[in-house]
Fold Bidirectional sugar transporter SWEET4-like isoform X2.
Amino acid sequence: MVFNKEIARFAFGVIGNIISLILFLSPLPTFVRIRKKKSVERFSAVPYLATFINCGLWVLYGIPLVHPHSILVVTTNGTGFAIEGVYLTLFLLYSDRKKRTKIFLIIVGEIIFLASLAILVLTLVQTHAKRSAIVGSICIAGNILMYASPLAIMAPNSMGIALGLAQLLLYAMYYKSTKRQNAGRKAEEELDLTEQTGSSVTRKTSNSAGV
């Protein structure tokens, strides 16, 4: 029974690895386009930076010194780490100078963070359980960061949509009152014009009578 459970666990792990590999390779057409045009155009590096550090965290989690018997975690995320590294290399090659510098500094920061975390956990924390708990918690945060990263691309458009809806809402709220105000002003102007016309006629009549 235990043997069957281990086989099932391994089988599901392999299936998970295959699915993860497909996901990691899904942006490949985008990078083929970048390679051909030799420009990243308007593509953002944020999702790939997030996935890069997320895979690095899970590799750290899966090593025997942190969480033993997690070879599948290491293989799938190690592969993802390498693939994302290739994607980011293409961003560095085909971005303008300002964007290239920014991406490079973020990559360096992520690598320093991973190295620092590994050193601190492996030297200061003595048991596998505690190491797994600490690194695992950070990995979960990394997962959230990775799946939320596309929002960084959507944010400007979302902001524009929100502002547009706000404008439409304000227009709907104040349209009728503005229309009434305009009608009132027009009526007042017509009344003033009528009074002025009447006054002019009266003055002319008085002048004629005096003559």
Observations:
- The radius of gyration is 34 Å.
